[in-house]
Amino acid sequence: MEETTANKSKKQSTGPGNSISTWSVQCGDCFKWRVIPTQEQYEEIRSKFLEDPFVCSKLPTVSCDEPGDIEYDNTRTWVIDKPNLPKTPPGFKKRLVLRKDYSKFDCYYDAPNGKRLRSSAEASRFLDKHPECKKDVSPSDFSFFSPKIMEDTIPTKVVKKI
């Protein structure tokens, strides 16, 4: 089931160089897209998506009978995220930045002290140097997975170099 659209979370971006601007998930029952207000709420849903798939009734005052919040189309660039990735560790900020050529997202974590972490190895070294962070966070809490850009939603004026 992991490969069906009903079991994947999706996000969208406003353009190159921008981070994700709208977080959304697809209902496993009605397949409508629901906007999730914050990255933190989105990550909570995504972190346990396979064992607890999203359905509209999990949101207050929303049901499958209501129209979707957002439609999958090419008015924005959509990306598909992998289910069950860990939530961003407490005190850190995760950023996904779309490359100008729309080839991929670069994933970064900003540490509490402002240091930017660009890889699992950097995250592990950072935690070794900052034991005060290590009590609440482990290297496995960082995922540098880059969501897949849905090619049918890339603006036609962008020349892909992939």
Automatic annotation (TrEMBL):
Record's keyword annotation contains Metal-binding: yes
Predominant location: nucleus
Location within or outside the cell: Nucleus
Domain called MBD: residue spans: 78-149
UniProt entry keywords in alphabetical sequence: DNA-binding, Metal-binding, Nucleus, Transcription, Transcription regulation, Zinc, Zinc-finger
One Gene Ontology cellular component: nucleus
Domain CW-type: 17-72
Keyword ATP-binding: no
InterPro entries, alphabetized: DNA-bd_dom_sf (IPR016177), Methyl_CpG_DNA-bd (IPR001739), Znf_CW (IPR011124)
GO molecular function annotations of the record: DNA binding; zinc ion binding
PANTHER family to which the protein is assigned, alphabetical: METHYL-CPG BINDING PROTEIN, MBD, METHYL-CPG-BINDING DOMAIN-CONTAINING PROTEIN 1-RELATED
Name of protein: Uncharacterized protein
Species name: Penstemon smallii
High-level lineage: Eukaryota, Viridiplantae, Streptophyta, Embryophyta, Tracheophyta
